[in-house]
Design goal:
The protein has about 350 residues and is mainly alpha-helical. The chain folds into 2 domains: about 210 residues, Rossmann fold (3-Layer(aba) Sandwich), CATH 3.40.50; about 90 residues, Tyrosyl-Transfer RNA Synthetase. The protein is about 55% helix and about 5% strand. It is built from 13 helices and 5 strands. The protein has a 3-stranded parallel sheet. The radius of gyration is 21 Å and the shape is globular. The structure holds tryptophanyl-5'AMP.
């Protein structure tokens, strides 16, 4: 059986989204809406793998609405494309349990993100954090999604999802039951790095707010963060060979190219030999001009939380209409009476 093309992706509502989320994923989602049917979720169930508890509940609700608003403000059209939060579609959790019984401990032991996120105290991490990539596989497979647009950091999780799909198909005697979902990792900024350290990726959880540009930052905050971004003492390179061992310069040039929609070589040629100060001013202006309208639209949408909740509910109904029959088939294959 050939599976029809379908895109699924998601983001965690943990703090606010940043430029890495936008350039690595969201910008591509908007483009893909014109190519294939898409589903985009806000993965609130993933967000509780780290900070959960009564004290975090209100933040999670607020962040979920904010992420949904960011999707819409960036150009995802909820009339065409369901936008929903994972917690409203119980089939994600149901399939995750079945897939937890398919995935092997040895496979999860190799996941580098768990090692990074659990840090030195693995035994204190939640079990949910450990099995997080299995829930991610369920997010994708519960719709039989074929394409998953993400940043580079999700590649290993996607490989795991493919292994889980293949093992399910094999163990339950249905060679084409689940597709092999394809990662779609495109653009010049598939891994945006921290503005403070070119060796670390830009992240929602970095303790330094100066390390990232948030989608909610205003023009002054953006200009300040770019002005203070770490660079090296050399002028801008004249060729991509000269970028070797200059991670901060490479990162800023990649961001510029991605925001301008230009090829990186063209950006290198445009700024070759110049000082960082002038380039940073141009980069700040470009960033403000691209993110400003998104931030303003997010603010407008967030003024009406009931409308966002309605969009999420509507999206969840549409998503469930796809997931329920697939989950019924899974239950039958497994042997559950339904
Ligand atoms: P999350 O919430 O960490 O990130 C959301 C998306 O943004 C991309 N991204 C980046 N891209 C470039 N540079 C960066 N510095 C950067 N930081 C983040 C991520 O690759 C991602 O595409 N596990 C996922 C969420 C998830 C998911 C899914 C994704 C749950 N279920 C199903 C796809 C399909 C995550 O934590 O992404």
């Amino acid at each position: 059986m050939k599976h029809s093309p379908l895109v699924l992706s998601g983001m965690q509502p943990t703090n606010t989204l940043h430029l890495g989320n936008y350039l690595g994923a969201l910008k591509n989602w908007v483009r893909m809406q014109d190519q294939m049917p898409c589903l985009f979720c806000v993965v609130d169930m993933h967000a509780i793998t780290q900070d959960a508890g009564y004290a975090h509940a209100a933040d999670l609700t607020r962040s979920t609405r904010e992420v949904a608003a960011a999707y819409i403000a960036a150009g995802v059209d909820p009339k065409r494309t369901p936008i929903f939060n994972q917690g409203q579609v119980p089939e994600h959790g149901e399939l995750a349990w079945v897939l937890n019984c398919v995935a092997r401990l040895g496979w999860l032991d190799r996941m580098t993100q768990f090692k990074e996120k659990s840090g030195k105290h693995k035994e204190r991490a939640s079990v949910g954090l450990y099995t997080y990539p299995v829930l991610m596989a369920a997010d994708i497979l519960v719709y039989r999604a074929t394409h998953v647009p993400v940043g580079e950091d999700q590649k290993q999780h996607l490989e795991l999802a493919r292994d889980i799909a293949a093992k399910f198909n094999n163990d339950f005697g249905a060679p084409d039951f689940f597709p092999q979902p394809e990662p779609v990792i495109t653009g010049t900024a598939t891994r945006v790095m921290s503005l403070r350290d070119g060796a670390k990726k830009m992240s929602k959880t970095d303790e330094s707010d100066a390390s990232r540009i948030n989608l909610t930052d205003d023009a002054d905050a953006i200009a300040n963060k770019i002005k203070r971004a770490k660079t090296d003492p050399l002028p801008l390179p004249a060729s991509k060979e000269e970028l070797k061992d200059r991670p901060e310069a490479e990162n800023l040039l990649n961001i510029y190219a991605a925001l301008a929609g230009q090829d990186r070589d063209a950006v290198i040629a445009q700024f070759a030999g110049q000082q960082f100060s002038g380039f940073k001013t141009a980069l700040a202006d470009l960033t403000v001009s691209k993110l400003g309208p998104i931030t303003a639209e997010m603010r407008r949408l967030l003024a009406d939380p009931a409308e966002i909740d309605r969009i999420l509910k509507n999206g969840a109904d549409k998503a469930r209409a796809i997931a329920t029959p697939i989950m019924d088939e899974v239950k039958k294959r497994v042997g559950f009476i339904i």
